[in-house]
Design a protein that fits this description.
heterodimer; A: about 525 residues; alpha/beta; Glutaredoxin; Rossmann fold; Ubiquitin-like (UB roll); 4 domains; five-stranded mixed sheet; B: about 150 residues; alpha+beta; 2 domains; four-stranded mixed sheet; elongated
Chain lengths: ~525, ~150
């Protein structure tokens, strides 16, 4: 293997491709070839880098210079200046830092990428994840190897996960180790592991970045889960809109099989585990685990009545563990480094890190991974660069559409399961939608309610009828036709839905409705007064 | 490929239903599932036609109405809404001369709404068939549609 003096990383995800990354890569390669540098410099495709809204991004190693908004026509001078002459090509914006200046900053230090203890995304933008040998060289599959080499029993694997305090990252925050233990103890001739990759929560794309950027981590985690609970078959249910995720994950599965890391007799150690991808077809409700199971069985995605829970009656009524992508992506590192290491990150009751997508009116939208318990203010200002165009902060919708509107008074809230619950908020999917002073909260709530009215599956009446009623009320209000008592009516409907709906879809609407009206009451009342 | 040819590649298992419907729909220029398709699937998997219809009508990605060659899906979720998807929707209706759920007379474009596409970093965004377009402005939208029109 030849050693290159320089690596150029180019993240290749849906957004980068949209921004023209393929053409940039083509030019890079041809320029390097033209200058006969192919033995010295290597261009690597990596997973997403976690920066959005900055066009095509490339990173030059070992100098760690980070260029953004790269266009194909920049490549020729860039190669000449930086690769050949060793100077920064300063015609391009090559760095971002807190001061938003153009001065040189190492890629690790700039806004979104700085001081992040990456557990989930550790390989996402550093490795050519499409090359399984490189993944393995960077520590991929070392956790399953450790389990098999050191003959760690399934019970001990569960104990490590329980000790680590890992909690589900899909929204509910249920302890993962406990879920595994229940599944292991449930009686059944066959058991299943399902990875919930039906990421439909508006404003959330963290799972997509893991699927596009480090699918091997997920595969490894599922093998470990299967080993722990006693399952030999796993399914990854990916939403139908995520074409690239499906393609890359399938490729990773095929590669893993070639290397005997998946399939029969894994690493010659007598463990069998196989993974199949199932593609969704566009239904938000399928993110709910029992609806997902129904869909996986080839049915309408109507949620089941719980209990019984999937841990005892899941896929085809067999014991099934359903975990979110991000939850699973934590598993290999925990196994490899131990529960104590993991517990040092985050808070006592919510250990570890959390991946957030920050977007909306924000200077640097994108993806970050920070420790649990990081204050919202720090996430928005230090990692997101603050509100766009220097405007004033008005609100953040935290946790997706089924999340909570937080006003500036709550900016210092710590982002972990417990602290948020104190403020009747949730971590949800980890989406943080920032709104500036010019945003109409009434209009945003309208958008949310429209979404829910469309996505209600229609199975239970409170949700089917409630979402429709709420939409009608907010529509009236938005158009200045609201009547006195409408606000209380909206709160009451959402509370009724919370108490009587079958699944979290109907139950969670109370959060955006109540938080919007309570935290921004004045704005709603102004709209009301337009009519009176 | 003919529907029956597609079916042959699948094991007769109910859990293959969604994948089968996807593949049949994708194989057609009209991007839709006809009555005959649903019937063929129901016979092949030995499940009631009403059940197949129930599934096909539940998921937004399936259509039982013929659609255009290009399906333009506009993300309507809160993040795109915040970044201006409403004006993008209006502009699209204007350029194409159709409303949501309709197909242009020449059968080239169908306009649809979609829930979050998960590309919020480039909001407002749309998806045309399998390709995502983001950071949209009315001008950019015009050139994208014109380009697609030329491609036909």
């Amino acid at each position: 293997m030849s050693v290159q003096r320089m690596h150029i990383l180019i993240p290749m995800d849906v957004e980068s491709i949209e921004n023209g990354a393929i053409e940039v890569k083509k030019r890079l390669n041809s320029e390097i070839y033209k200058n006969k540098l192919e033995n010295e410099v290597k261009v690597l495709e990596t997973g997403p880098i976690g920066v959005a809204g900055r066009g095509v991004v490339i990173v030059v190693y070992p100098d760690r210079v980070f260029y953004y908004n790269v266009k194909p026509e920049d490549i020729k001078p860039l190669v000449e200046e930086h690769i050949i002459k060793g100077r920064i090509y300063d015609k391009l914006d090559y760095s971002i830092n807190d001061q938003k200046g153009g001065k040189r900053v190492d890629y690790e230090n700039y806004g979104l990428a700085k001081k992040q203890p990456r557990v989930v995304l550790d390989k996402c933008c550093l490795v050519n994840t499409f090359d399984i040998e490189e993944v393995i060289a960077r520590g991929g599959y070392k956790a399953i190897e450790k389990i098999l080499d050191e003959k760690i029993s399934p019970e001990d694997v569960i104990r490590i996960i329980k000790d680590s305090g890992l909690r589900g990252r899909g929204g509910a925050g249920f302890p993962t180790g406990l879920k595994w233990e229940f599944t292991r103890k449930s009686v059944g001739d066959e058991k299943y592991v399902i990875c919930n990759a039906d990421e439909g929560e508006p404003g959330t794309f963290k799972d997509r970045l893991i699927l596009e950027g480090d699918p091997h981590k997920l595969i490894e985690a599922m093998i470990i889960a299967g080993y722990a609970v006693g399952a030999e078959k796993g399914y990854i249910y990916i939403r139908g809109e995520y074409e690239l995720s499906i393609e890359r994950t399938q490729r990773a599965i095929d590669d893993a099989k070639k290397y005997n890391l998946l399939g029969k007799n894994i690493l010659e150690q007598g463990v069998n585990f196989d993974i199949e991808i199932k593609k969704g077809a566009g239904a938000y409700v399928c993110g709910e685990e029992t609806a997902l199971i129904e869909s996986l069985e080839g049915k309408r995605g109507n949620p089941r009545i719980k209990p019984p829970y999937p841990v005892s009656h899941g896929l085809w009524n067999k014991p099934t563990v359903v975990n979110n992508v991000e939850t699973l992506a934590n598993v290999p590192e925990i196994i490899f480094r131990g529960a104590d290491w993991y517990k040092k990150l985050g808070t006592e009751k919510s250990p570890g890190t959390k991946v957030y997508t920050i977007l909306g009116h924000i200077e640097y939208p994108g993806l970050i991974e920070v420790e649990m318990g990081t204050p919202l203010r720090e996430i928005i200002n230090a990692f997101g660069g603050g509100v766009k165009h220097g405007k004033k902060f008005k609100a953040a919708l935290v946790g997706g559409a089924a999340g909570v509107f937080l006003s500036d008074e709550l900016l210092d809230v710590k982002m972990d399961f417990e602290s948020l619950r104190e403020h009747k908020a949730v971590l949800g999917s980890g989406a943080i939608l920032v709104m500036d002073e010019d945003t109409s909260i009434v209009d945003m709530l309208f958008s949310i309610l429209k979404f829910f009215a469309h996505e209600s599956c229609g199975q239970c009446s409170p949700c089917r009828i409630g979402t429709r009623h709420l939409l009608e009320l907010i529509y009236k209000l938005k158009n200045g036709e609201g009547e006195k008592g409408d606000l209380d009516r909206m709160i009451k409907i959402s509370e009724t839905m919370f108490n009587t709906s079958l699944c979290p879809l109907g139950q969670s609407l109370v959060m955006p409705v109540k938080s919007a009206i309570n935290n921004f009451r004045q704005e709603f009342e102004e709209k009301l007064n337009m009519n009176n | 490929m003919e529907t029956n040819e597609i079916l042959k590649n699948y094991e007769k298992r109910e859990d293959n239903l969604l994948s089968i419907l996807h593949e049949i729909q994708n194989s057609k220029q009209t991007h839709h599932l006809s009555k005959e398709d649903l019937k063929a699937v129901s016979e092949y998997l030995d499940i009631p036609l009403s059940f197949v219809h129930g599934v096909a009508s539940f998921y937004t990605m399936y259509s039982m109405k013929p659609r255009g060659k290009y399906i333009v899906r506009v993300c309507q979720s809160p993040p795109c809404h915040l970044m201006g998807s409403t004006s993008i929707s209006k502009e699209l209706m204007n350029i194409l001369g159709i409303k949501f759920g309709e197909t242009t007379e020449d059968g080239i474009f169908t306009l649809e709404m979609t829930s979050c596409l998960g590309v919020c970093g480039v909001a407002p965004a749309i998806m045309i068939n399998d390709t995502v377009y983001g950071n949209l402005t009315p001008e950019r939208l015009k050139s994208i549609i014109e380009e697609k029109r030329r491609e036909k």
